[in-house]
Amino acid sequence: MLLESGKQNESKISILSGGTASCSQDHQRWYVLKAKPREELLCLREIKQRGFEILCPMTREFRFRRRRQETVPLFPGYVFARFSYPEDFHQVRWTRGVSSLVRFGENDPPPLEEAVVRLFMERMDEDGVIDTSPGLYEGQKVRFLSEPLRGMVGTILKCESAQGRVRVLMDLLYQATVEIERHQVQGL
């Protein structure tokens, strides 16, 4: 599996399959790698070039200061790689962007269950993004999170919008309807 799309490779890469690693696929297991700060994408590219399968689930997150949605790692600072331990350990560990292999104490690193990795892969869309947005539905009571309506309560009238907006009926003395972005309300 290789998920890349044109010029935006930096933000879209989440699953990469490399060529052949030193051992057969039968002996390879999934492990958690700690990436250097904000170098998950570098880690992905470099490990892929060494021939290993790698996974970095992404999610979309609204950045209030930048006032836009960005694609970011679901687990910042961590990626999953499939390799044979201990045979390929040094090759993976000394890859650019990798800080360490996650382990508990001095013990060998615990491999991830295949079912966990399969679950991530099943929930990813074609861009490698897992939807973690709150499930809002029509008729649900919500609280506003941003000014000038912060703290007020309303009821969702419509939440199917191509722009990711919801229409909310305000619980006021008079009936007022506002249309705002999904990240500005929280379900009660």
- Tell me the total number of β-strands: 12
3D shape: elongated
* CATH domain topology of the largest domain: Alpha-Beta Plaits
**Would you state the CATH class of the largest domain?**
Alpha Beta
Helix content: 10-25%
**Major sheet:** 5 strands, antiparallel
Overall SS class: alpha+beta
Distance between the termini: 39 Å
CATH architecture label name of the largest domain: 2-Layer Sandwich
Q: Supply the number of structural domains.
A: 2
Multimeric organization? single chain
Helix and strand pattern: HEEHEEEEHEHEEEEE
Strand order of the largest sheet: 1-3-6-2-7
Q: State the low-pLDDT regions, or none.
A: 1-13
- Provide the β-strand percentage band: 25-35%
Q: CATH homologous superfamily name of the largest domain?
A: NusG, N-terminal domain
Q: Number of helical segments?
A: 4
Task: Report on the architecture of this protein.
A hairpin with a 6-residue loop joins strand 9 and strand 10. The longest helix has 10 residues. The protein folds into two domains: 118 residues, 2-Layer Sandwich (Alpha-Beta Plaits), CATH 3.30.70; 47 residues, SH3 type barrels. It contains four helices and twelve strands; from the N terminus they run H-E-E-H-E-E-E-E-H-E-H-E-E-E-E-E. With 188 residues, the chain is α+β, with helices and mostly antiparallel strands.
Short description:
This protein has helices at about 10, 40-50, 90-95, 115-125, and strands at about 15, 30-35, 55, 60-65, 70-75, 80-85, 100, 140-145, 155-160, 165-170, 175-180, 185. It is of the alpha+beta class and about 190 residues long. It has two domains: about 5-125, Alpha-Beta Plaits (2-Layer Sandwich); about 140-185, SH3 type barrels.
